[in-house]
């Protein structure tokens, strides 16, 4: 129901929400039929025993049934209008449920199920069981109207009302006001890995711990999704507010043991990225305070999990100029939440070792010099006569199918993702998707499946102490041996304080590790030697100059020699023409990647290309 609006508007709201939740209704929607379907399903969804209850949808002007407190003929919209301020102005699907006397009112699980059925954020229930149940239902309505049903915390609107009152007191000479904006780190990963029930438990635990650490004058709220907030009505200055934020962050971060629905437990280590903002300007508004705390939270998230950041106007001047980036970041968040990111896969081929008569003039035997350049037929492993060449490996490359700009490569949005603190969540999604796709290829292609998959790991991910555990969990969940996964690390990530320790932990899992973009960073050779089994990937900027600059050729040759001496796999990136491939093979390069060998392609295209040709008169093997 939309309070203060007409019957037709409310009807359209309910019809639109329910038909969307229930599936496409067709071109000719019968309103009475839709409302009847909704009413018929409501008791079952609420968990009420069969035959004990009936329901009907109430619209503005419809009288509420008997035994509800107040006049028996009070219209439903007037009933809502008598609720506290925080209950008004929202969209409600109002159902009257007439249950037999003694029927136990629906529990929270049933009400949440009804919310999902109706397709609106909250459902108002009028339970006609007896006066006690009706009174309880109305009390619960008032509570739920201003409180989040999952965490029990006030909702955003209620918090903003508290902020308005606190700012008014401050304007009259009252205490300092601060707002903490907290983002629960890794909630999407928990939902994707252990289910939404685990994510709900994580949010509930964070909310309970937050509430337990507050003073009576403080107000905590759920702002939506994975975001919480705390109003400090007597902040005591920026240093004191930051100290409170750090104390709350520590309280939230205690280990949390969850029972899994399929048996066993998992121990989570919750953390929040927290932004702190003070109302230190005349005329400060609630919306501005929220925006400042939100901006500080994003800066904290870029720093790493569990960090606290204070909003300082001078430091955020550049952020205010990044309106376009902010919009792009919002779209990227939606794309991640709605699974609109993609992985494309580029083949990495093993090259034949050149013999005495097949040096650079004639090119590698059965190499792709004269063959097609999709990298999956007549490839450099010499399997062209027996069907498509199986690549030695594939590299998973991030893509975003943007609603306005089309298919974007990672370079078009990775900086925005890093600035917005999304790299860790995107990386977790990409890791699971790539490993899962490798398992799909195994099932579809058998021995013709790629031997391994390379997945890029950002410096932000490498700094997460639980990265090795998460990698191990993904491999165990999907059932892929660790040796078939290679994690590509940048030189920047390796130089971080967490880099070496993380790499050692990953190698203990028997995962492969590759140092990406070798030759354009600033790591020392000693750091390369420190990682005994790491593959080396020579950056494409050197490869592109291989046939034109002697210095580039000498450097590539030196890296190849170092790789052979250390027993490492060396992959030459950026091979874009036959001449470069011929010279690479002559120099002793054993593995190569680039457009000449194969462009990045969706997984389905890789599958289709790797299927062996059909025998004469038969279907593909």
From TrEMBL:
Domain EAL: 325-614
Annotated signal sequence range: none
Record-linked InterPro entries: Biofilm_reg_signaling, EAL_dom, EAL_sf, GGDEF_dom, Nucleotide_cyclase, Rev_trsase/Diguanyl_cyclase
Protein name: Diguanylate cyclase (GGDEF) domain-containing protein
Residue spans of biased composition, Low complexity class: 356-380
All residue ranges annotated as the GGDEF domain in the record: 175-313
UniProt region (Disordered), positions on chain: 349-388
Pfam families, alphabetized: EAL, GGDEF
């Amino acid at each position: 129901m939309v309070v203060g609006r007409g019957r037709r508007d409310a009807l359209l709201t309910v019809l639109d929400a329910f038909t969307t939740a229930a599936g496409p209704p067709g071109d000719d929607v019968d309103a009475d039929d839709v409302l009847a379907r909704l009413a018929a399903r409501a008791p079952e969804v609420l968990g009420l025993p069969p035959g004990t209850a009936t329901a009907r949808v109430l619209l503005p002007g419809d009288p509420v049934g008997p035994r509800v407190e107040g006049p028996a003929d009070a219209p439903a919209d007037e009933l809502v209008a008598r609720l506290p301020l925080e209950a008004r102005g929202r969209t409600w699907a109002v159902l009257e449920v007439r249950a037999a006397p003694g029927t136990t009112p629906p529990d929270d699980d049933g009400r949440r199920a009804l919310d999902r059925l109706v397709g609106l954020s909250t459902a108002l229930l009028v339970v006609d069981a007896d006066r006690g149940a009706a009174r309880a239902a109305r009390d619960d309505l008032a509570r739920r109207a201003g409180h989040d049903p999952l965490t029990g915390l006030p909702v955003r609107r209620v918090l903003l009302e508290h902020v308005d009152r606190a700012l008014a007191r401050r304007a009259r000479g009252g205490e300092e006001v601060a707002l903490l904006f907290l983002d629960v780190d890794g909630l999407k990963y928990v939902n994707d890995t252990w289910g939404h029930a685990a994510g709900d438990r994580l949010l509930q635990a964070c909310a309970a711990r937050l509430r337990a650490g507050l003073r009576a004058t403080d107000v905590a709220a759920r702002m939506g999704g994975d975001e919480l907030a705390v109003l400090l009505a007597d902040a005591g200055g920026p240093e004191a507010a930051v100290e409170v934020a750090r104390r709350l962050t520590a309280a939230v971060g205690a280990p949390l043991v969850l029972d899994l629905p399929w048996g066993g437990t998992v121990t989570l280590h919750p953390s929040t990225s927290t932004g702190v903002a003070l109302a230190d300007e005349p005329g400060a508004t609630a919306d501005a305070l929220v925006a400042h705390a939100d901006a500080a939270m994003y800066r904290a998230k870029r720093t790493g999990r569990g960090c606290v950041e204070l909003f300082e106007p001078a430091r955020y001047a550049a952020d205010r100029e990044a309106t376009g980036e902010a919009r792009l970041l919002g779209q990227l968040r939606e794309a991640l939440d709605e699974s609109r990111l993609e992985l494309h896969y580029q083949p990495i081929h093993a090259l034949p070792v050149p013999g005495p008569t097949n040096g650079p003039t004639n090119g590698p035997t059965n190499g792709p010099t004269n063959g097609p350049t999709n990298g999956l037929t007549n490839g450099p492993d010499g399997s062209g006569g027996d069907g498509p060449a199986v690549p030695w490996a594939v590299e998973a490359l991030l893509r975003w199918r943007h609603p306005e700009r089309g298919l974007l490569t990672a370079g078009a949005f990775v900086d925005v993702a890093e600035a917005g603190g999304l790299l860790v969540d995107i990386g977790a999604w990409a890791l699971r998707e790539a490993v899962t796709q490798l398992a799909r290829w195994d099932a579809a292609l058998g021995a013709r499946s790629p031997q391994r998959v390379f997945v890029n790991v950002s410096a932000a991910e490498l700094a997460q102490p639980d990265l090795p555990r998460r990698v191990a969990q993904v491999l165990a969940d999907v059932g892929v041996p660790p040796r078939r996964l290679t994690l590509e690390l940048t030189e920047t990530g390796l130089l971080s304080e967490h880099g070496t320790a993380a790499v050692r932990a990953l190698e203990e899992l028997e995962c492969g590790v590759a140092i990406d973009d070798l030759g354009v960073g600033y790591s020392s050779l000693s750091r390369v030697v420190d990682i005994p089994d790491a593959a080396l990937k020579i950056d494409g900027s050197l490869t592109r100059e291989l046939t034109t600059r002697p210095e580039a050729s000498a450097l590539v040759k030196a890296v190849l020699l170092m790789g052979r001496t250390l027993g490492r796999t060396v992959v030459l990136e950026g091979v874009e023409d036959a001449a470069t491939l011929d010279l690479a093979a002559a120099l002793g390069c054993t593995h190569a990647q680039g457009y000449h060998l194969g462009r990045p392609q969706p997984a389905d295209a890789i599958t289709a290309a790797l299927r062996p040709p059909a025998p004469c008169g038969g279907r593909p093997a």
